[in-house]
Specification:
The protein is of the alpha+beta class. It is 45% helix and 23% strand. The N and C termini lie far apart (83 Å).
Length: 180
């Protein structure tokens, strides 16, 4: 046998030894894990630690908080997309009583032939102290394209949760000063 062949045989034996050792270690770890029917598993499963329960509750509240924020922002974006359609009934239905407030976004409602809309919103601001907000203010910056120059607006929308739906309660949107 050549010198190279001996090294291949030695390397193969070493690799087989490593594979056997790893498999033996994995088998021991699996043997150490109690089965769900064992008394040790039953005692740990029935009494979660207070820290684990608090962490799970906190994580659940945070997830609900984040979902509420995301849903509210999505509602504002959907509203603004519907606002510039020929039939504004869909947009009007997103208001708290099915009709927009008399003021707040009057300039937006006069725009016609809108060909493009960009909505940039800042982080929603809770208007109540509940862990999962039911009232939010969402600051927005709008760029609206159409006939003529690009129009810019800024302000905010106030929303309140009704069941599973966010409804707009107020708006304060004004033309932004021209940027130079």
């Amino acid at each position: 046998m050549s010198h190279r062949a001996w090294w291949l045989v030695i390397a193969t034996i070493v690799l087989l030894g490593i594979a056997v050792a790893v498999q033996e270690g994995l088998r021991r770890d699996a043997d150490d894990v109690p089965s769900p029917d064992s008394p040790a598993a039953a005692s740990t499963a029935s009494a979660p630690s207070p820290d684990a329960a608090a962490a799970a509750a906190s994580a659940g509240l945070q997830a609900a908080h984040d979902a509420a924020m995301q849903d509210a922002v999505s509602a504002v974006h959907a509203y603004l997309a519907a606002l510039f359609k020929d039939d504004r009934s869909e947009a009007d239905a997103m208001w708290i009583h099915g009709r927009p407030a008399s003021q707040g976004e009057a300039d937006l409602r006069t725009l016609e032939d809108v060909t493009g809309l960009r909505v940039d919103n800042a982080r929603p601001q809770p208007l109540d102290a509940t862990p999962v907000p039911t009232a939010l203010r969402i600051p927005v910056h709008l760029r609206i394209g159409g006939q003529g120059p690009l129009r810019r607006y800024s302000g905010h929308y106030d929303l309140r949760r009704e069941g599973e739906t966010w409804r707009i309660t107020a708006a304060s949107i004004d033309p932004s000063p021209a940027q130079r």
